[in-house]
Amino acid sequence: MNGGLYDKPIMQVLGSKKIQGSGANERFRLLVSDGKHSHSFAMLATQLNDILISGQLSDYSVVQINKFVTSVLKNTGKGEKRVMIILDVTIISPGTEVGKKLGDPQTWSEDSVTTTAPAPSPMRPVPQPTPAQVHSLAKPAAGPNLDSSLLGSQMTHPIASLSPYQNKWVIKARVMNKSPIRTWSNAKGEGKLFSMDLCDESGEIRATAFRNECEKFFDIIQVDKVYYISRCQLKTANKQFTALKNDYEMTFNADTVVAECMEDASTLPTVKYDFVPISDIANKNSDTILDVIGVCKSASDVQELTAKNTGKLLKKREATLVDQSGGAVSINLFIYLLLLGYTKQVIT
């Protein structure tokens, strides 16, 4: 937390609190301790929510934090605050076995650490921007594809830590998918847009570019590439148009800066999954978006039918999936044969 390198630290969870969201978008804040200091600004990545909700991770549990990232956020009226986002954790001793707080931890702060942190590994020299690059960064509208060293030299923020209350941030994210350009026309005017789904180790988020930004960034943004992105507008996500597990979404604007990451980014995931056991599907609400992995036990032949409301030709195939939870679920695979010859496969 104080700038050193710590490999898989051992900590105790002293408490937890739900801070935002509901269902798949719930976020939990943890109070953690190393026996000497406690820190209340630790956040559990959404893919780990189940171990907390199920009770596997409870108060007084001793855990090994296998992977985490830190971010510096503005704490209203109190300056900056370091947040630790826990991405992967192993429970060493359940809270029911430990049953008490270990040690006498004091609240951690920037000034409370008196011991010397482990020396960080040598850092590669950060290229110094030229005057022309500085001018380009100050006025991003002149060209969106900036030198990545300008953004890469800044501290990046985990996607899971973003909120509308932050003004300055840079994320390093992989493009999971990108929509084609779509147009609209209504009483307020007309225009075009495209959207993309971004992810990093901490989470995922939808980003949308309208009108001028649509033209400016569409050809630059490529699926599976990694980019530094900054200066977007953050707002509450419209769940009618996105199923990503994030309460917020980004909108590109005239100040948005995008630069391709030219360094090794193999640690960033290509797609974010949160698999649910098939036996748990019956407990989920209708229209919930789920990730499921299983074995195809049986599949029907392809059937052809015509949609009553559109008259379009449909092809349908049914299949049954099973997994190690002992559950089974039927799925329908539809292939829509549109007049333009465009096919889209949908799983229901």
UniProtKB/TrEMBL annotation:
Pfam families for the chain: Rep-A_N, REPA_OB_2, tRNA_anti-codon
Region ranges (Disordered): 100-139
Replication factor-A protein 1 N-terminal domain segment(s): 7-92
Domain OB: 169-250
Polar residues bias spans: 106-118
Gene3D superfamilies registered for this protein in UniProt: Nucleic acid-binding proteins
Ranges for domain Replication protein A OB: 278-334
GO molecular function annotations of the record: DNA binding; zinc ion binding
Predominant subcellular localization, coarse grouping: nucleus
Annotated localization: Nucleus
Biological-process GO terms, alphabetical: DNA recombination; DNA repair; DNA replication
Keyword terms of this UniProt record: DNA replication, DNA-binding, Metal-binding, Nucleus, Zinc, Zinc-finger
Composition-biased stretches (Pro residues): 119-130
Protein origin, superkingdom: Eukaryota
Function according to Swiss-Prot or TrEMBL: As part of the heterotrimeric replication protein A complex (RPA/RP-A), binds and stabilizes single-stranded DNA intermediates, that form during DNA replication or upon DNA stress. It prevents their reannealing and in parallel, recruits and activates different proteins and complexes involved in DNA metabolism. Thereby, it plays an essential role both in DNA replication and the cellular response to DNA damage.
Family: Belongs to the replication factor A protein 1 family.
Summary of subunit composition and partner proteins: Component of the heterotrimeric canonical replication protein A complex (RPA).
Name of this protein: Replication protein A subunit
Lineage: Eukaryota, Metazoa, Ecdysozoa, Arthropoda, Hexapoda
Gene symbol of the encoding locus: jg1374
